[in-house]
């Protein structure tokens, strides 16, 4: 009787498998057998295999090679009895102040009438019926947003397709119908981690300052995409009016890139709460003065485009003169009232003293 396969993964360099028969039955005519497969996994070349998965691997910016090659899974012997839909992900995780680039170099065996690929400024996308299950190779963000997707009748001259990101991304290999005798499509790609400080998560405590977009030179003329998800937490630490000015010389749609201002929230990992305002480059310039005492906000930049964004973000914490004047006037009035009360107290004691002295003399 064929039973569903079991898989075991060891983080060490050796593993022993003991097979024990529960009871002997010499009258059985059918020959019993055990079949299986094993594979040694080179972490430096193929990433770190994730527990309880067949083919999901992680590449970390500080522990993995700074650059390397990626290829289609499914050719190893451990896939011998896999049948049906196959999905494998290669997760590339840059460290702080790092970027990651994935470049898809070659593809073949992806012909399908149910899906085709379109490439534009916002990335390549797979055009298909929502219910269709087809072969796909796509790059997604940590929020599972599809950054680029390739399927069906893909034009070879569109290659390479490159996505450069400053946050973790995944290259997902999805085969609609896999079997050992009819394996999935083939591809080859490259990845590279690079040290830079273009984007990330930063906490800024200055009362006044400016953030400007860095100068980035495109590395490829065709189908090269920038993906950014930057977060700045502005904490002025004073009870003042926080004014934020955002500007750009570009005129791009909000889907290409945008900057949003959020309330501070402890509930979210990046501290970004409700959206207060979203800036798009077609506005050219916008100035927002936040309510009194809202001295801590989160600013987020989101980018998915072929053209690097151009922007500046200025902020300042202004003293509210009216509130300070009101506070000073209130203090002065309180001092005058206290002084008047003290004078009346002295006069009352004087009258009582004179009255008592006259009574004694009489």
From TrEMBL:
InterPro entries: CUB_dom
Alphabetic keyword roster: Disulfide bond
Highest taxon in the source lineage: Eukaryota
Domain CUB: 199-334
Name of the protein: CUB domain-containing protein
Species classification: Eukaryota, Metazoa, Ecdysozoa, Arthropoda, Hexapoda
